[in-house]
Structure formats: C-alpha cells, structure tokens
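ingest -> fold -> write
write: protein_1
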Amino acid sequence: MQVSSLNEVKIYSLSCGKSLPEWLSDRKKRALQKKDVDIRRRIELIQDFEMPTVCTTIKVSKDGQYILATVVTFEILSDDYSKIVFLHNDRYIEFHSQSGFYYKTRIPKFGRDFSYHYPSCDLYFVGASSEVYRLNLEQGRYLNPLQTDAAENNVCDINSVHGLFATGTVEGRVECWDPRTRNRVGLLDCALSSVTADSEINSLPTISALKFNGALTMAVGTSTGQVLLYDLRSDKPLLVKDHQYGLPIKSVHFQDSLDLILSADSRIIKMWNKNSGKIFTSLEPEHDLNDVCLYPNSGMLLTANETPKMGIYYIPVLGPAPRWCSFLDNLTEELEENPESTVYDDYKFVTKKDLENLGLTHLIGSPFLRAYMHGFFMDIRLYHKVKLMVNPFAYEEYRKEKIRQKIEETRAQRVQLKKLPKVNKELALKLIEEEEEKQKSTWKKKVKNLPNILTDDRFKVMFENPDFQVDEESEEFRLLNPLVSKISEKRRKKLRLLEQQELREKEEEEELEGKPSDAESSESSDDEKDWVEEVRKQRRLLQQEEKVKRQERLKEDQQTVLTPQFYEIKAGEEFRSFKDSATKQKLMNKTLEDRLKIETKNGTLSVSDTTVGSKQLTFTLRKSEQQKKQQEAEKLHRQERKKLRRSAGHLKSRHRRGQLFH
C-alpha cells in the first residue's frame, strides 16, 4: 500500500507493489510470498484485476456488486451485469445478456459514445456524423435520427431527472434536445466561454466530456484542458477550471457529499469545489489515464490506465470503504508504507545481444531464462554474478564515471564559453555576441527570429574552409572598418579566455577537484572618437607599411643577380626586334603634351573648334596590321570596279525632259 498526501488529504494506492510474473506456478508464487516480505505484506484487493493489454473504460453496476472493464465503450442497462451494450470500433453494436452474447447490429457511421433513455427505451449513438442515431429496444428497429448542426459529435449524456439529451460537438458546442418532441431546445458555445485571460489555447476547443448532475447542473470538459460548469438556465458558465496541462478532459464526476467535482485528463485527477473552484486534492498516477470511475457512496476510486494493471485508490475523506471491503478502514491506519519499487525488480530484462556479450546464449531454452517479447527475463542475482565475472573492472569504470560526473557538476558553475570554429573565429565570436544581446533585449519577442549564420548549413563552409578566412590586415578591410582594432580587442580577450578554459579542462580530466574560473573579460567602455580622425590614422599607418614594404623590395632587387631571359620562337616565324616594347617604354616616359603631338602627327588625335568656342578632341584607335591590309585590299578593289564601270549618263535626253514641262 502506498500513501500520498496533498492538502492534508491522504490517498491510499491499493494496486501498487510488486507483481508476480505470469509464468510462475502457484507453488513458486506461494514460495515467493513466504520469502519476500514485500509480496507478503501487499494488499491484493481484487485478484487478477488486470487486462491482457490496456483498459479504456471502467464502470460499476448500479447495485455495486460488479466492476466491468473493457477496451471499448459500453453501457450497463440493468442493475447488475445481465444487460450490457457494447459499442465497437468497427461500427458494430453488441448486446450481451447474463448468459453471454445475444445480438449484433451496425450503425451507418463510426460511433464514439452513446446513452440510454429509460422512459422510451431508446439508445442514442453519436460519432463521425452530424446525425444522432436512435435505436429503439422495445420495437427492435432504428428510428429517424436527430439532425444536428455539427459536422461530428464526440460525447453525449441524458439527464436522469427530466430526460434532456445533450451532445458535445467538434466545433466546441453543446446541443440540447428534448426526446419527447425530438426538437433542439438549447445551444451552448463552450469554445468561446472556455477562453479566459489566463488560458493559453492554440486550437479550437472541442467537447471531450459531458456530465449532468441533478436537474440544472451540467459539467463540460474540452480538448484543451478546461472544465466548464453550467446552470441550464443560463448560457454563461458559472465556473471555468483549467487543468493547466493542455490535455483533453477524459471524464467528469460529481461528489455530492462534499460538493466536489472530479475531472481527469490523461495525466492527473483533480478534485475541486464546484462553488469556488478551489483545489481539494489531486492524484497523479504513474501511467496515463483513460477513464475514472467513482464507486457510489464510498471513497474508492477506480482508474483505467495505459497498462494491463488497473488502479484502485481509497480516499477516506470522500467516504467510507465499500461494504465488501470494509476492513480497509482499519488497515489504512496500520499499513502506511513508503513507495515501493517498480514491477519485476527481482528479474532483469535482457536482449539476445546482451546474452551474447555475457556469454549466456547457451542458457536460451533453460529455466534460467524466460522468453518475453523481444528478450528474456533472468534472475537479477544471476545477472549481477555473471556481469562481475565477465567484467571484473566494472567497479573502476563506475568510479571513473562518478569522477567524470563530479567534474561536470563543477564545470556547470563556471563561465560557459562556447567552442569557436577553426576558421574566422573573430567573425564567429561577433555573431555569438550579437545573438546574446538579441536574447537579452526586451523587444526580442516583437522581432521575427532569423536563422543564425553559425547554425545555417549554407554558410558552414565559411567556418571550415581556410580559403574563406577574412584578411583583417588588408587595406580594404582596415579602411572600411576603422574601429575594428578597438572592437576586436574585446574579442581577443575572450579568445584567450577560451583557450585557457580548454587547457584547464584537459588538465582536470584526471583530477577530481577543480576550481571554478573567476576570470572575466574586463571590458572598458572607451569614449567615442571621431571617425575622420580614425580613418586618417589608419591611412597613415597603411602608408608607413607600404613604405617599409617598398624598401624591403628595393633591398631584395639589389641583392638579386639578373640573368638574361631566353625566349623560344615558334617554327616559321622570324625575330625582328624589341622595337615595339622599347617604343612604348619611351612613349610612357614622355610628357602628356609630347604624347599628344605624336598622336596628332600619327592621325590618332584630331582637334577641332566648335561654334560655341569650345574644343573637340577625337581619338582614333590604332588599327592592327591585319586591319590595315584588309582596308588597303578593299580600297584597291573599289578602284578596279570604278575603272571597269561603264557610265549610262549619255542615254539621258535633256530635250525629252524639257518637253515634259512645256
């Protein structure tokens, strides 16, 4: 038995404790109970209270003598288990009597929930359709369905006092119908009412749970984790309770003696006052919840979980123990125990690969290994014994692992410096600083988050390939960034800190204790300087560097011994002279005036005066030898054509032209 307390309300878990493996025989189970104190002291309130896989729905009969648990939705029509209706996932509806299966039929669309109207003997089915299907059990036939305004319906319930039928839709509305007239009498927009100032809703709330209490009270659970309490005379909720988990509400129950509401999602069961909304207590099982059932007129709570084992809880504040287990009231005061270990602690689950590493593959098929799923169960004592024999240095590895964990804990207290890439460290550090400043800014939420260059695969080569290294000594970089020297000083300090940090980490790998680094980058805020002065200063530095480089080149030229350079002439060509290059060199040494005179003489430059008193210069590009030859050939060709051409001017008659105008 496990005891927990919240708000001074004790909750006793009657289903916790060790579970015996199914393959053990009765003799071995009895032997274990004699040897193991934990198994002997556990309370098995209901024997074999388990499912083969999981359980989704759990209910108690009206007479309190039977507990039914299934993986599909069902409804108990009688006081005991003699009349039960099951709604399957494949649209089938099964009727069972006390002797077993009785009848099976189908509905047109997949069903999700149904309710039974006792006065008319009608079953109302809701599901993946806008229609509510009605099956009359007295006549044994389907009646005309109710047409809702929703695309689909999730849950439904019938008020036991006046017979009002309510269905919850995927649009977040609750439609109320009168079964006598088959007309809709009310519509509640719960999705709009569930949105409050404190709630965070990312999608449209749908109705996931619905429960009536008395003639005028109704509780509605939404898929976003809110529970709304309504008075049927008003379309506004009396109270909105948020589970704060954002999970769909699985079930809602009323506890009238203390004016409590029990609402459950897949993670927690909350009990709160229906008048004030104040939390009474809460229960958080180890596994996810599917359904919750409150045993009538008692403090016992039954849960259907995502495990084969179903949960049984006893809360004395809610009420006494059921009559069939009245001894719980005496045991709860005597058998308060600490939380127990998990299932099968005396056995170790190993895979086939683990057996190969341990050298125990020859035990497959023997009583020492019990096949289960994709592996085997073996005795934990045998496992530890074999593990020690296979790896005698396991303790040393364990000790080294503990030492490493201690070192990691001490490192967590130090100044965390991120590792920088090998290429463009200055640029990477600048980007990291900008990202940190952006995170610290108050308006960061308003700015759209842009991808970081460091984490973007498109710019990955910039920090890996040395060809992309930024040359900070180049003239262009220094003139465009005149203050880069001042800014980069801070980054150089951080780089030195990073190198020292890495050296210390390497030294402390073999030590246990380490002192946290107290080094901090002392950043002094320099006064702003004029950009013009800084640019001039950079230019003077560049000129000095250029002068030093020029002197070094002159020294190298003086020390260099010149040797003649030979050229190989292609076959069929004749060497004339270096006249062209020499002429060009002489021309470059002359003044602009002399060069203009030469260009005028050669015909490449022509000067003319314009009418407005200005001068016009025309430069003609020199033509290559091939172009000159081609032009000469074209000129000769035109002259030859002119010589060969015969004139036709003598054929014209001036006299005839004169007569036309007379």
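write: protein_2
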Amino acid sequence: MKTDWKTIGWRDACAALALLATSTIAPAWADDAAPDWSTATVRKLDPANGRVTLRHGPIANLDMPSMTMVFRATPEQLQGLKAGDAVRFRAERTDGAFRVLAIEPDGAGN
C-alpha cells in the first residue's frame, strides 16, 4: 500500500514527530529521576525530631562537597542505625531543607 503524503495532514505529522522526539529523550529523564547514592558516616541520630547528622562525601545531585551536616529523616529511615555506622544515602533539597530519601548500611565502608 502506497502512502499518500498529501492526505496525512499536519496534525498527524506533528503527532508522529512529537512521538519520535520524546522517544529519543525519554532515557535522559529516567537518569534524572533518582539522585545518586552518596556515602557517609552517621555522626548523630535524633529520630524524635526527624534529624540525622552525617559526615558525607560529595553529593552530585546537590552539587555539594564533602562536609558534616544535618538532614531531615523519618524515624523509620533511622531505625537500626547508630552513630559511627557507614551508610549510603540519597538526598534532595525541598522547601529549603535537606532531606534523606533513602538510607542504608554501606557494606563496603567509607
């Protein structure tokens, strides 16, 4: 069957072009969906106030160098952790506060 390009119409052509364009850039969105894991040592836990102090390495998604600072975290995220533990974590900045998205023991140490 031969395609009659004159009858396709602008709407169909634009829809096809949009589909093609988004299908090639979708993987870039997936890469930015979750921050990279960073490593740290737990310095202090304050589950009652939803805080953890971490001495961390660079945090790429926050463009932050190594330092010691306080992050917000839920008491559930801090269960099983203690000062001195090596951890890996993901963090973001929302509403002016740095928050732990995920945190877990780092078997490799840091």
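write: annotation protein_2
The radius of gyration is 22 Å.
Helices lie at 10-32, 75-78.
pipeline exit 0
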